[in-house]
Amino acid sequence: MPSLYSRALENLLLPAHNVARGRDFVRHRKFLETSQWWPPEKLREFRWKETRALVEHAFRTVPYYQKKYAGIRLEDIRTPEDYARLPVLRREDVNAHRAELRSTAYRGKLISHATGGSSGVPTRFYITIESYDWRTACTERVYAYTGCRLGERTLFLWGAPVGKLPEWKKWKVKAFETFRRQLVINTFSQSEEKWREILTRAVRYKPKLVVGYISSLEGFARFLADSKHKLPGVRAVIAAAEPLFPPTRALVEKAFGAPLFNTYGSREFMSIAGECENHSGMHVNSENILLETALPAPAGASDILVTDLHNYGMPFLRYAIGDVGVLDDSPCACGRGLPRIVSIEGRVLDVLRSASGRVVPGELIPHVMKDIPEVLEYRVTQTSLERLEMEAVLSTELSEKSRKILDSEIHKAFGSGTHLEIRRVSEIPRLASGKRRVTIGLPA
């Protein structure tokens, strides 16, 4: 049963905010509540209609696709099978042709975004406000699979903004978190002292839902188990950002006394998929995302390709996100008609450590790197408790601002005794699998 505040937020406060700001989050959220129960055929029909409209827009208004698809007629793309024959878009293409990927016809506001480059290559791009409202609506639907609604008290074991925020932005973030009833705690630096502080704040806050990076959830769960503490009242846990393995799921569920719901997303598209109450794969937000694999399902895991159906300012068509997985269109026992991701290979990130005994999730590095524009590719190796070495492919020398951000964030997470040495290289070697490794920690 949703709380009184949740009902007020969903039915009164957010609709009023959307009307005042001319936003569509509430409308999309209501649509998604209904459409998830459509039969697969109706969802496929809707998805193809949205795909076809986006392809027509890209052919007519996006210079990059006009060149890339030269010789292909719009009339030739009549079915999803035709669409699946279009060339793939890759990170290198986005970085090299960012200006040409913008639509010449789009007149709305564009929001600048960047990935942290979990695969080792940061990507900088733009999204529209319309697309952002679709993305946040999809995120909230995935969160609602837990049984918790908007406005329920939620603890985020998350990251923190990079650099120093101006005062007005701090107040804006604080107001948003208060409005949504969120307690967001930076867990990029982990220690027993930090976990004790988080436990004290969490017990006082009384969250119904806990959301976190998988390594952060695992660290806090291990602390709860070892110290024999409990966090009463938690109804569900949502995991994000890193690969989830069965031992971690078991540890987290036991420590919190609540089921864990895995999710899959990215900076480029936000929420892509999430587990329902049956935990048999992750339902794709297919009204907003067209998800393909490079090879059909019987061939096993292959590259995941993403089309963002509503970012008309900078369309991403058949984008290779850098992960490998298997999709399943068969019905889920929950009754939702949405397709599922049944397995996925995530990011290759290692845990790092500080001289004082802190555990620093590898996710810290991509989180910081998204704000360092000179770095094209990178890899961080911890050579000792006092030293991190970054191999970096640079577009130009690091600015003083970028260097200060790097030093500040490293010292914030590791302590002042850890030094980051940056070595400029021409390329970053790949693993035998073809993937890049972003962080390499010390041997256990």
How would you describe this structure to a colleague?
This protein has 444 residues and is of the alpha/beta class. It has a domain at 352-440: GMP Synthetase, Chain A, domain 3, CATH 3.30.300. It has 13 helices and 19 strands. The protein has helices at residues 4-21, 25-35, 40-61, 63-68, 80-83, 91-96, 129-144, 167-180, 192-205, 214-227, 246-256, 364-369, 400-414, and strands at 110-114, 124-128, 154-158, 182-186, 209-213, 236-240, 260-266, 270-275, 282-284, 289-293, 302-308, 319-328, 340-345, 352-353, 359-360, 375-384, 387-394, 419-424, 439-440. The strands form 4 sheets. An 11-stranded mixed beta sheet has the order 4-3-5-6-7-8-9-13-12-11-10, with helices on both faces. A 4-stranded mixed beta sheet has the order 18-17-16-19, covered by helices on one side. A two-stranded antiparallel ribbon has the order 1-2. Helix 10 (214-227) links the parallel strand 5 and strand 6. The longest helix is centred in the first third of the chain and has 22 residues, at 40-61. The radius of gyration is 22 Å and the shape is globular. The termini are far apart. The model has no long low-confidence stretch (mean pLDDT 89).
